[in-house]
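FAQ: What does the model actually see?

It sees only this:
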Amino acid sequence: MNSEMTFEQALARLEQIVKALEGGNVPLEDLIKLFDEGTSLVKLCTERLDKAEEKVKLLQMKDGVLTEEEFDE
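And it is asked to produce this:
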């Protein structure tokens, strides 16, 4: 896995891994490698999503002034 992958690239690779694992024709040794790669990709995607969430800002008008506030779930 490459930490320079974009979120979209990591997600696409993760989808490929899931399809391969669901196919049931993967030898055990390869299955373990794919599973390890998949867990790393899930971690990378989660980190990227967490960073994106931190950057989300809400724009609000307060007293006629446009202000930024942190996104609050």
